[in-house]
Every structure is written in C-alpha cells, then in structure tokens.
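Database export, one record per block. Field names are fixed; values are copied verbatim from the stored entry.
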Amino acid sequence: MAKSKKPEYIGDLLGGLFRQRNWQGRFAMHALFSFWDVVVGEEIAIRAQPDLIRGTVLWLRVSDSIWMQQLHLSKNLLMEKVNARLGESKITDIRFRIDPTLGKAKPPPVPEPPALPVDQDRLRHAEEMFAALPDKDLQKTLRRLWLKTETSRRS
C-alpha cells in the first residue's frame, strides 16, 4: 500500500511516535516539575527541587545535609504525595544531592537614586503621545523609559 502524500499535523506525528516508543508514561512523570512547589509546599520547595528522573527514580537537589536528612526520613510521604498527583505513572524512589544555591535569600534590590525634577510641560507632552497607544502596559513602560532618559539627560 502506497503512503499518502498529504501533509500530516506535527501533533499527530509526535503522538504516534510517543505511542510507538511507549513514552507516554515517562513523559507524564515529568509533569511533577510543574506541580512540585504546590504538592510539597513553599517551605520544602525553597530548599528542595526536582532535578531529573531516571527510570522511576526522582533525583532532588537539596539545599544542605540537614534538609537532605529530613527529606530522606519523609521520603515515603513525599512519594505518596507526588504519585497521588501523577496518577498511573509512579515514582518508586527518591534520591538526593546537595545544591548549596537552593534556599539562599535573594540579595536586596538596589535602590534607585532619587529622581531629578522633570520639566512638567515636557512630561505632559510625552504622556499625551503615550496615551495614543492602546496598550496600557506599553504606555507605562514607555513612560518609565522616558523618565529615565529625561533624568539621565539632565544629570
């Protein structure tokens, strides 16, 4: 039987490949990367993040050895929570590795220097031009950019 010369949708081709290679279950397991923070809660999510899945083993990056020990003791509960969310695809084990970059507080934002006074007539004229744009976010962004440019020009 000759193959059809009709174009096929990429979604259909990928779906067929997934079924042929039996990848549906493995692909479904990787959904846990998107729901991890919700399932384990903020306190754990700050200190532990999924890194990779090998077979049915989940590898977590953990901030330090204390959290590694705590999570190791809670491994069965973690697997229950994750597997309940995954459905048919199941994680059979969790392994850990230390990643000291997790759990670190973000540096405080650098404060902006006080703004120099702006010529109000020029500002009003610029705002009239921005008001002609239909996108409010674009208007705000252009206004901030204009103010930065104006104050740096004057300093």
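Remark 1: The helical segments are 10-21, 24-29, 32-40, 42-47, 65-73, 75-86, 120-131, 136-154.
Remark 2: Residues 19-98 form a domain with the GMP Synthetase; Chain A, domain 3 fold (CATH 3.30.300.180).
End of record.
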